[in-house]
C-alpha cells in the first residue's frame, strides 16, 4: 500500500516538473497592422472602400465604380487605375495611367504616375505634390466655358528611341482602327452608308448635335453614377456613346474613302472604302498632331461631326435630311418638295 502511494506522488511530481518546464512567460511582440503581400489580377471596387497599404503591390488594374480607394506611400499598382464616379487618394506609385470619369482624385507627397492622366468631368487636387511622367488630358464641361484637353507639343524629341516607339505604336493603333472600320463596313454596309449620307447632307446640324451631346453626356453620367443604383445605366450609356463615336469616326473615314474612289474614277466596295479612308484619316491626324493643338482640335471636331450624324440617322436606320418647303408658284398649288440628291441605295435601285 505504501509502495502505491510513493509511486503516485512520484508520478505527480514528475508531471508537475514537466508542466513547469514547458511553460514560459509571453514576450510582447510589436503589433503588425497588415501583412505585406501582392494581389494578383485586377481589383474591382464597387461602392466600397479599398486600401493598398505601404509595401503591398497590386499586379493588375484597379477599377473603382462609385467607391473609394487609397494607395498609401510605398504601395504600387502595376496597371491602370480606372474610376467611374469614385474617389482616389494616391500617395504611392501607379505604373500605368489614371482614367477617370466624374471622379475625385487627390494626390499626396511622393505620389508617382508613370503613365498619363485622362479625366472627364473630374476633380484633381494636389497634382503639384506628385510626379507625373506622362501627360495630363482633362475634358470638363462648364457653364459657358469649354476647357479643351491639354496637348503637349515637342517638335524635337529628346529621346529618339521613345519617339520611334511611340510613333510605331500610333501607327499600329491607326492600322487596327482601319481594320475595325473594314469589318464594320463588311457587317453593316447599309447603316454605314446612311450615316455617311447624313454627314454630307447635314454637316452643321450633325456637328452641333454631336458637340451638344459631348457637353451634356458627362454631366448626365456623373449624376447617374452618384445615385449608385443607376450605375448600370451609366455604364450602358458610356458603352452606347463609345459605340456611336466609333460608328461616326468610321463613317467619316468611309466618306473619305468614297471621295478617294471618285478622285481615281473607280468604284470601291464599302469595306475597302471604309478601311482606306479611316487609315488616311488616322494618319493625317497623327501628322497634324505635331502642330500645337491642331490635331486634337480636328479630332474633336470630327468626333462631334460623326457622333451627330449617328444620332440624326438613328444609328444608320434612316437617312436624315431636312427638306425646306419650296415657295408656292403664282396661281398654282403649294409645292413642299425640294431637290434632294438621291441616296446611294436609290441610285443602285435605279441602275438595276
From TrEMBL:
The keyword Cell inner membrane does not apply. It holds the Pfam family DUF8173. Residues 170-314 form the DUF8173 domain. The keyword Cell division does not apply. Residues 324-352 are annotated as: Disordered. The chain crosses the membrane at residues 171-192, 204-231, 237-256, 268-288, 294-312. This is DUF8173 domain-containing protein. It comes from the Bacteria. Residues 343-352 have a biased composition (Basic and acidic residues). Keywords: Membrane, Transmembrane, Transmembrane helix.
